[in-house]
Amino acid sequence: MMSDHARHGFIAMMVLFAGVASHALPHPMGVSTVGAIGMLAAAYLPRKLVMIPVLATVLIVDAMNGFYSLLAMSFVYLGHLAAALFVSPVLSAIKVRSVAMAAVISAVVFYLLSNLTPMAMGYYPNTLEGWITCYVNALPFLLRGILANAVYGGIAFGLIALIGASDARRFFAAQRD
Predict the structure, then answer these.
(1) 108: number of CA atoms within 13 Å, CB side?
(2) Of residues 170 and 150, which shows the higher confidence score?
(3) pLDDT tens digits for range 33-92
């Protein structure tokens, strides 16, 4: 029997591998798999390990594709990490409703944090009108993020549910600290 430590390490590596493999594939802007990776990590890993597959996924893919502004990367990485942590309580029981709620929450948290980037970089004036314009202009990305999380998260959680064998269910059972 595999220890909890070994099982968590194995799950983290599987989620990381799935994250890098899926996020490295070409995808429309804003239709990323990272939100779903965060949802999987939040559902199946202890809270202290959730950030590892999420941050490693974006870091590895950014290293492969080329890094960009450190300021922008900071907000994007923070957005992905916070999104995964925020959905952790929602995914304590994995059901269609909780996965759907997590897809929306994850996208909203990422949207709120990552859209601080254009404000911090001076693309919009630091006024109420500038903030509103920034977030309104980013609404299509929020909708794409919700769609991506729902589709990719639904596929991932659905595949895990389809495995269905009792050994697989015990292995993937949510083990949290």
Answers:
(1) 8
(2) 150
(3) 999 999 999 999 999 999 999 999 999 999 999 999 999 999 999 999 999 999 999 999
Global pTM? 0.87
Is position 177 within any domain? no
In whole angstroms, how far apart are CA 145 and each of 10, 15, 20, 64, 149? 27, 19, 18, 22, 6
The contacts of residue 174 (CB under 8 Å, 6+ apart) are 43, 44, 91, 92, 94
Helices (H), 24-95: 34-44, 51-65, 70-87
Rounded to the nearest 10°, the torsion over CA 74, 78, 81, 86 is: -170
What is the number of domains present in the chain?
Answer: 1
Answer for the pair 145, 28: CB distance below 8 angstroms, yes or no. no
| CATH number of the CATH domain containing 120 | 1.10.1760
Residues in the chain: 177
CB neighbours of residue 46 within 10 Å: 17
Q: How many helices (H) and strands (E) does the chain have?
A: 9, 0
Residue 137 resides in a domain: yes
